[in-house]
Amino acid sequence: MEKADKQKEAGLPENLSFEEAMDRLEEVVEHLESGEVPLEESIRLFEEGMKLSRYCGEKLEKMEQHVEMLVRENGEWVKKPFQSEEEME
């Protein structure tokens, strides 16, 4: 499925950047934490926050796959794919 299709299906605007999604997620969390939002609006915000959180998590996972690190092996610097601590265990 194309990126734009996934975003549209999740109810997120097309071409939403990671930074925009994080900013909106922070706004949603602030609204929810204020405790001044009616129940129905809280549920809608919660669902939006979950979509944004999932979107940001997927973006980070993709970026992590593109990151390479330099590792010194036998006195020479070699490019290796990034591995998180969880993947190394």
From TrEMBL:
Gene from which this protein is expressed: xseB
GO cellular component: cytosol; exodeoxyribonuclease VII complex
Cited PANTHER family: EXODEOXYRIBONUCLEASE 7 SMALL SUBUNIT
Keywords: Cytoplasm, Exonuclease, Hydrolase, Nuclease
Family to which this protein belongs: Belongs to the XseB family.
Protein name per its UniProtKB record: Exodeoxyribonuclease 7 small subunit
Entry's Gene Ontology molecular function annotations: exodeoxyribonuclease VII activity
Lineage: Bacteria, Bacillati, Bacillota, Bacilli, Bacillales
Entries under InterPro entries matching the protein: Exonuc_VII_S (IPR003761), Exonuc_VII_ssu_sf (IPR037004)
Main location, first listed in the record: cytoplasm
Catalytic activities: Exonucleolytic cleavage in either 5'- to 3'- or 3'- to 5'-direction to yield nucleoside 5'-phosphates
Location of the protein in the cell: Cytoplasm
Membrane-traversing stretches: none
Subunit structure: Heterooligomer composed of large and small subunits.
